[in-house]
Structures are given as C-alpha cells and as structure tokens.
Amino acid sequence: MTDLTASHVQSTDVVPARSRFPIHIVVFLAPALAIYTLFSIYPLVDTIRLSLYAGDETGARSFVGLQNFYTLLTDPNWSGQFWNAFTNNLIFFAIHMVVQNGIGLGLAMLLSLPRLTGGSVYRTLIFLPTMLSVVIIGFIWQLMLNPLWGIAPSLLKAVGLGSLFGPWLGQESTALLTVSLISVWQFVGIPMMLIYAALLNIPDDLLDAATVDGAGPFSVFWFVRLPLILPTLGVVSILTFVANFNAFDLIYAIKGALAGPNFSTDILGTFFYRTFFGFQLQVGSPTMGAAVATAMLVIILIGVLIYLFGVQRRLQRHTF
Amino acid sequence: MKNLHSKAFRRRAGQLLATASVVAAALAFANAASAQTLTIESWRNDDADVWNTKIIPAFNKKHPNIKVQFKADPPTEYNAALNARLAGGTAGDLITCRPFDASLDLFKKGNLVSVNDVKGLENFSDVAKSAWSTDDGKTTFCMPMASVIHGFVYNKEIFDELKLTPPKTMAEFHAVLDKIKADGKYTPIAMGTADQWEAATMGFQNIGVNYWKGEEGRKALIEGKQKFTDKPYVDAFKELASWAPYMGDGYKAQKYPDTQNLFTLGRAAIYPAGSWDVPIFRKQADFEFDAFAPPVVNAGDKCYISDHTDIAIGINAKSQNMEAAKTFLSWVASPEFAEIYANELPGFFPLSKAKVDVKDPVAAKFVGWRGTCESSIRNSYQILSRGTPNLENELWNVSAQVMNGSMKPEEAAKKAQDGLASWYEPHKK
Lengths: 320, 429
Hints:
The complex is a heterodimer.
Chain A: H1 2-14, H2 23-50, E1 53-55, E2 61-63, H3 67-74, H4 76-111, H5 119-131, H6 134-145, H7 151-158, H8 175-187, H9 189-201, H10 204-212, H11 217-245, H12 249-255, H13 268-277, E3 278-279, E4 282-283, H14 286-311
Antiparallel strand pairs in A: 1-2, 3-4
Helix pairs in contact in A: 2-14, 3-4, 4-8, 4-9, 4-11, 4-13, 5-9, 6-12, 9-11, 10-11, 11-14, 13-14
Chain B: H1 2-34, E1 37-42, H2 48-62, E2 67-72, H3 75-88, E3 94-97, H4 101-108, H5 126-130, E4 143-155, H6 156-161, H7 170-183, E5 187-189, H8 197-212, H9 214-223, H10 231-241, H11 256-264, E6 268-274, H12 277-284, E7 289-292, E8 304-315, H13 322-332, H14 335-344, E9 349-350, H15 361-372, E10 374-376, H16 391-404, H17 409-421
Parallel strand pairs in B: 1-2, 1-3, 5-6, 8-10
Antiparallel strand pairs in B: 3-8, 4-6, 4-7, 4-8, 4-9
Signal peptide (chain B): 1-35
Family (chain B): Belongs to the bacterial solute-binding protein 1 family.
Organism (chain B): Microvirga arabica
C-alpha cells in the first residue's frame, strides 16, 4: 500500500499534469475506432488474408501466396470473365457519370430557378425512387418493359412507334444499357440534391454582379456557377464511382447471378457473387471469392487515389 | 488505490463471466435433454404447407415423440445460406440434399453422414441413389426423395380447336407448330430465354435425351467417348434454334413466370415443361391441359425421358438427435411417404421402387413414361460440372444464345466442348 502511494506521488511530481498522455483523445476516438475496426477494418484485412489461401475438397485451407490472383488474371477461364465484368462495370459507370450526373445537374439547375412553383414537390418526387427497394425497382421496370404485357410496347404502339420496341432487357446489345438506365432513374435524386444544395450556397450578389456586368444566363452558368460547384461535382463523381463498382443488387434482381444474356450485364459484384457463393452446380469458393473481392478493393482504391491526388487537390474551394 | 480497484473489478467481471457460462451450459444441456426436435433445412419454401399439414402429421402418427420442424429458404439462396449455417454450427438436423456435387461436397467436408446403415435405403435403385453417392457408388449420404420429369404440356382446348394431335416425332412436332403459327391466334411455344435455365433445362435437356440416347450418351460423355461437338448434341442445339420463330414476341426478355402466365392465360399452345409445373397449372389454368413426351427424332425410335433425380434428405453430422434423424429417414424411404409426397406434390415423383398411385392425370402421364421410355438424368450434373468453367452454367448460356440466334448450334457445341476439355481429363486430347 505504501509503495503504491509512493510511486503514485512520485510520478505526479516528475511529470507535469499538462503533458501527461492525453487520455481523453483515446476515449473520444475509441467508439468509432472500435466499431470501424470490428466491422470494417478487420473484415477487410481478413478478406485479404483469405485471398492468399486455397481450399481443397475436405474444406481444409492452405497458404498459396498470390496463386489466386495469378489464376484470376492469367487463366483464360477466369480472366475472361473478370475483364468482361470490369469492362461492363466501366460502361455502367460511364453511363452513370454522363446520364445520371448530367440529368442531376440539369434538374438541380431547374430547381434553383427563382420563380419555380412546386419546387419541393418535384424534389420529393424525383428523390423518391432512391428510397425504394431495389427489388421493387427491378420488378416494376421489368413489368413496364415486358414484351408480353408491359406498358412500354403498348405506349409505343399507341403513338405509332411500335416497331421501335425491342426486348431490351434480353438482348445482348441493349441489356447493359437498359439496366444502367434503370439504375440511373433510381439514383438520379442523389446528385440532384447534392448539386442543388451547392447551388443554393452561391450568394445572390455574385450572380447579380455577373448579370450587371452583362453576362447572359449561359455565361452565368458556365463562368460563375459551374466553377463554384466543381468541388460538389467531384464528390458526386467519387460517390458514383464507389457505388457503381460495388453495385450488385439491381443486376441480381433483374438478370440473376448469371447476368445474361451471355454475361453482357455481368459486373464485378455479380462476378464476385458467383465466385464466392457459387451458382446452381458451381460450388462456391470462399478463397477465390476473396481474391475477387480484393481485386475489387484494389480497383476502387486506385480510382479513389486518382481522384484524391489528381482531382481533389486542384479543386479550389470558395467560402463565402 | 487505482490498481486495487481495477483488480476488484476484474474479479467481479470474472465471476460474472463464469456465471454466464454456467447458465449457458445449463441451457444447452436442458436443450439437449428435451431434444427430439428435428429441424429440416430445405429450399422448397413452396411446399412448406404440405410438410406442415400432411407429411409431418403423418410421420407423428407413427412416431409421436419426435417433433419435426420444416424450415425453408428461397431456392436461390438455399446453398449459400445452408453453407453459412453449417459453418457456423447452427444448421438443422436434417438437410435437404441437392443432387450430385453440391451434396457430395457437403459429405466430403464432413457435414453429412453416411446413410448406408439406415433402414429403407434398399428400396431405391442404383440410378436413384447415384445422385447422392460417392463416385465409386459405395457410400450413399442422402435418402432419395423425388425426381422431376421433363416433357411438353399442351392446351387441350387449343389443340381441339385447331384439330391437332399430340406429336410423336420431331417432324410431327414441327407440323403442329406450323399449324398453330399459321392460325395466328396463339403463341405456338411458351418459352423465354431471359432466365437462361429455361433454355437449358426445358429445352436442351428436355429434348436432348432422345438425341444422345439417354444414359448411353450421358455415360459416354463422362467417359470421354463422346463430345459435345458430336452429331447428337449439335442436332439438339439445331432443334432448339429452330424454335425461335414459334416463340412469343420478345421472348428474349421473357422470364419464367411470364412463360407460365402466357400458358395459363391460354395464350400459348405448347409449354416445354418440368413436371413440377403441373400443380401450379392445376391451380391457375381454367382450361384442360395434357402432356406429351419429348418427340423422338425418327418414327419408331426408342424414346428417352429426362427423369431427373432432384431432391433427397440427409443428416447433419453435428446433429444432436442422430437416432431420431435416422428414424425419420427410414420413414422417408417408406411407401407411405412416397404415396403422400406423390399426391400432395404431383410433379415430384418418388424414386423408391414401391408402386405409387399418382392421382393427378397429367402427373400420372408424366410418371407413366417411365414404363415406355428409358429414364436418364441431366447430362451436366454428374462429375462434369466440377471444373471451371462450370458446364451447367455454360449450357445455360449457350442454349439461351442459340435460341436468341446470337450463336450458331455448332459454335454452342464447340464452346461447351472447349470449356469441358480445358479441365476434364477424359476430354483433354
């Protein structure tokens, strides 16, 4: 007891109270750190670890180094599917960048028109699909585009354009585009809201000043508003990128895990699903699946790094 | 001071933990003692009603001490969910077995036990057991329950209206299709390629057995004596390709439920079917329908049917109620079970040798073909779907493409063959 007290006293004497280890920082960081470690960092690291193993038919696993990645990238049976999924994913992403974010920007501009009536109604309606379940979205759109009893063929016929209709979800040439546009329809509300918020942040005096200086609406948009919302467009892009390369659910709901026809709608998410969980007679391989998941992580990481170092650092932020 | 405090705290925490674990152990023990509740894992969520109201009560009449619980996942999620539960040790006592490798894989991993010593296994033929036996046929690990048979269901009213008779040969089949198409009121064939498996299962495997002569061709493929590029297989693909003009508008985007509806709404004349469709049509179609067997290539040829072993039941190796589980399995092997199963779920045909009366006339017709034609199973299921690329997935893909017209029959055959030859020794040459 005396010993204890003595050492205690001594330590307080030597080290001034202020420079003691700042325990409160640890305390404040702990909850977030613990949760992220448990649910995010640990699974991620464990996935990477699992990707370095291979299982045999008894379920025993052995360390194989980078063999899984070697197979994934060089065995034509794997690499063909992998690059096909990657290419489709790039197209999927490109369509979202152009169509979803383009329309999102346009809608945000329209919403921020000063004399718009019922703006909040439009805003809610356009944002609504984002909150619906993907299963419902997939189901509704399949019904609408159904060649047998869908509304799309009848509508087109009603205006005399019946010959333009095709089984878009079933053709190799159009399936990916159709699924992408359905996804765009669902998520267009998100870029709209973000950009709309950024547009509202621009002070009116800037716009007024530009108008007084003789700028038309187009120049105001191009030279004043657009530069001011560029940081938001950057955020929207990176969100789209990450979401698209992790996408899975809509394709699975509409086209199933085999992502037909002829894998034309196969993206990395569905490819991963088939590999990890297996499909019909294909027995799932957790280790190979982990390798695919790690490859996806690397792809997303590269994309994010390009954005962080190539784009974000050059963006100028304006505060008013 | 501080240290002492934490020591006390640690001690208390330790006590708490000890108490908790004792309580947990006691609970687990109590659970084991009351036991005798068997849980069945299954993908047949459609059949939950039949299990709960017919099958389990019938079992309980004989074995009142064993409680049975039926727990089903949606078919597409079953394999993944079951594997996760087996790995986590929370899977049920009885496991519904998929045919061939999915279950063989479970057995090899030690998740299923051998059922060689379970009474009733002698009621099944080797073909019936083949889907749930090791490659050497010595150990069986699931008790066979039922098979499904492929054929064609047709709308009798449309056939009467157009004065058609069910075709026996491929030439007759095409004549019938042409007549329906010429009439123009009905879609000749209800089928879509959007789900892909329809094309492979109801198309390729359905008619294919007549081309590759059932078991003969299936075994020759496994032994490497035949290739997908051989005539029978290419011809089967060619036949599929010729269906395209007879299928509904936009069949490329037509899914399985669309196909079923197209037929039950009376808008299509012929439906390439699996026998499991019979109970569904019985409920939904308000017209008379009947079935004909897959037409043979030339008149007088021996006929074959795809009588596919589809469902069985095995025992979880970690089950606490091994004896009760075995009792249940021997009951599943009994004629009593076969009778209930066949009539409550017409379209799933018992595999046991016992003679069973199937009351549904269309289902009875399906099972009747067993007497006149040779049975075979789908050729991609045994052994051949073990490698990468997976043969079954490939067949789905190429069959759908052949019907979509985006691939020639010869190309489809070559793709399936190349995939198989890339990993399967007997085909590497």
